[in-house]
Amino acid sequence: MQEAHEKELLSVREVASMLDLCERSVYRMADAGKMPRPLKLGARSLWRRRELQDWVDAGCKPVRGAIR
Length: 68
Description:
Layout: E1 9-10, H1 12-19, H2 23-31, E2 39-41, E3 44-48, H3 49-57
Antiparallel strand pairs: 1-3, 2-3
């Protein structure tokens, strides 16, 4: 079971801190398919903690080709 203090969804600020990146770089990487895409809730972008951790554990491999 998930720890009570651990949030399941992370803001761009929390993701940037986790990955040691600036917030803009997080958005750019997600848009380019280099990391998991966020969930969109209204104007907010939120990432699933488990999905990000699995991605990091797998070596941060691109998740899909860039959309252009």
